[in-house]
Every structure is written in C-alpha cells, then in structure tokens.
Amino acid sequence: MSELKIEETSTFKPKFSSDGLIPAVAMDFKTKEPLMLAYMNAESLQKTLEIQQAVYYSRSRQEIWHKGATSGQYQKIHSIKTDCDQDAIILYVEQLGGGACHTGRSGCFYREVDLTDKAQLNFSE
Amino acid sequence: MSELKIEETSTFKPKFSSDGLIPAVAMDFKTKEPLMLAYMNAESLQKTLEIQQAVYYSRSRQEIWHKGATSGQYQKIHSIKTDCDQDAIILYVEQLGGGACHTGRSGCFYREVDLTDKAQLNFSE
C-alpha cells in the first residue's frame, strides 16, 4: 500500500489551489537569500519553464506578469524545487537588474517583525 | 508624497488574502534551508506570536494547526520577516522532532524539477 504517491513521484505535477494559483518563492541561487514570494497559474508556470525566466501571475492586475519585462529585473531560472505534496515551488534564480524588490532592495524580506511588541497581537484580517 | 507607506512602516500589518490566509515559509534559522510552506489565518498568526511556535491553518482540515502537537515536530520561532507589502512571511525556526516534513525528511523541498523534461510543459490546473 502506497500512501506517499504524490510525495515520491519524480514527475512534476503541480497542485494549484482552488483559485488556480500556486505560490512560488524566488531565492538567489548563490546566496540562497529569499527574494520574494508571488503566485503562478498554469499558464505562467508553463511560460516560466519554456523561457527559463520567472513569469508570475499578478493577483492585483489579474494578468500574466513576466517579471523584468518593464523593470529589467528579470529572474533567470537555475533550478526549481517542489515540495512533498507539490502545492508550492521554490525558484532558484539569478536576479538581474539590480534587485528583486520594487523598493530597490535586493529582496522583499528586509523587515523583521518585532516579537516583543505585544500591541501587534491584535491585528485584524 | 509617500507612495511606499506599507513598504516602509516598521509596524507589522499582515495583509491576508481574500480567503483570510497569508503564506508562511518556514526556514531553518541556522542553515537557512527552506523547510516548508503553509498558511496562517489571523488567529493562527496571533497564536504563533503568543507561544513563539509555528501555528498554521490547515486548508484541508479547515482548522488551526499547531505544528508538532501530534507529531512532536514543533517549530520554535527565532525571528519572523515580512515582505514589502506584508502579504507573505518567513519564519526562521528551530525545527524540533527530527524534521519538518511528514515524509520524515528535514524539509519538504527535497525534489528538483527536471527542467529538460518537455513533457511537463502541458500540465493542467
């Protein structure tokens, strides 16, 4: 009896959420620094595999988003990993154009949460 | 004129998706290895901050999921980072109980996608 079929297959069978999206974390292929988290739909993921550059799906604009097409901040794919149940992926990329973040920083995760600040324990959804 | 209010505030104001969830990537605080990606709702994130252990929201079971409560695979929070627009978080954790993944591995991202396999260019949603 095999209970771990999805987990052990070598075939890439990405599992999209009910909204048709899968989260993708881009990381620098050299430093392993996490650069950003965005989403892909099937079309953008296929495009990513085809052109070997990160192509996301913009939830706010509701359209395919070839990162770098307007900013020059392309992400060249070096490798892709998927997780046990294949509902998330990590892109190891070479970040071009100076940085991944629209603020001009190398990556988007530049801000550390103050864990001693009790006031933040009551944020709303 | 400030166009980067969300990006530059030091206040933690997590932005949940329309389904009330925010993706959280757990990484080993020492090795920076990505361990897993899961989701939190406001309640589970508040609980995470309170007990300093990762508490997720299970989308399949539709309930709060205190990781480790049944498996012993607790994740002790060392620090938390959020991204520019605060709609994703990274947890730097000390992974207890042997590993993060239910397959017994240290992390869930153990599988590399074969980028030369053209057959996978036509997966369905």
Give the helices and strands of chain A as they follow along the chain.
Answer: HEEHEEEEE
Query: What percent of residues of chain A adopt helix (DSSP H or I)?
Result: 10-25%
Question: How far do the termini of chain A sit from each other?
Answer: 42 Å
β-sheet strand percentage of chain A: 25-35%
| pLDDT averaged over residues of chain A | 93
Rg of chain A is 16 Å
Q: Main beta sheet of chain A, described? A: 4 strands, mixed
Largest interface chains and counts: A-B, 57 and 57 residues
- Based on DSSP secondary structure assignment, what is the total number of beta strands of chain A? 7
The CATH topology of the domain at 20-101 in chain A is given as Ubiquitin-like (UB roll)
Structural class of the secondary elements of chain A?
A: mainly beta
CATH class (first level) name of the domain at 20-101 in chain A: Alpha Beta
Q: What's the quick description here?
A:
With 125 residues, chain A is mostly beta strands. In chain A, 11% of the residues lie in helices and 31% in strands.
Description:
The structure is a homodimer of 125-residue chains. By secondary structure, chain A is mainly beta. The first copy, chain A, has a domain at 20-101: Ubiquitin-like (UB roll), CATH 3.10.20. Chain A has two helices and seven strands, in the order H-E-E-H-E-E-E-E-E. The first copy, chain A, has helices at residues 5-8, 42-51, and strands at 22-28, 34-40, 55-58, 63-66, 75-82, 89-95, 111-112. In chain A, strands 2-1-6-5 form a four-stranded mixed β-sheet. A two-stranded antiparallel sheet of chain A has the order 3-4. In chain A, strand 1 and strand 2 form a beta hairpin. The model of chain A has no long low-confidence stretch (mean pLDDT 93).
